[in-house]
Amino acid sequence: xxxxxxxxxxxxxxxxxxxxxxxxxxxxxxxxxxxxxxxxxxxxxxxxxxxxxxxxxxxxxxxxxxxxxxxxxxxxxxxxxxxxxxxxxxxxxxxxxxxxxxxxxxxxxxxxxxxxxxxxxxxxxxxxxxxxxxxxxxxxxxxxxxxxxxxxxxxxxxxxxxxxxxxxxxxxxxxxxxxxxxxxxxxxxxxxxxxxxxxxxxxxxxxxxx
Length: 210
Description:
alpha/beta, Rossmann fold, 2 domains, six-stranded parallel β-sheet, two-stranded antiparallel sheet
């Protein structure tokens, strides 16, 4: 029997809000001459289940190519300036890895940034797959990312076990849509969670999975 744990990245494995905020504000100032947002507003906006981020961040109805290009150019350098693993994450991943649990990441962030950040934080070697929104046709809460990862493992629902660990409703719903179990983490971007399985520290994941 395989045990597979799929993690969200931002707000679950790593705290990346400072660099995301810096890059969003850079685009706001450079392309739109708008004042900066604080980190709390950025995190709240990202975590909303239904939102129009271009409207919230840049006051445009759609994500314009000039904004996308400038954000990606700036964030490529910015993304490794301040991120850090939440307390207990590295140790939790190491225990699962040593125990033979399959580990992957499903993030709505672009894959290149996720790979860069997780490598910078020295955990990418424990991950089999890092799947960003650019690798599938629809991002979470659509189950496409989870299906892509489960297919990689040749997941058999009758014999294997899989969990999605995340910090917002999109992660939980993506797991439900993929018909796997979900774990809501409340140490990151979301201090409150609405789900039957809520963990307050990464060690609790070990108790569930092992």
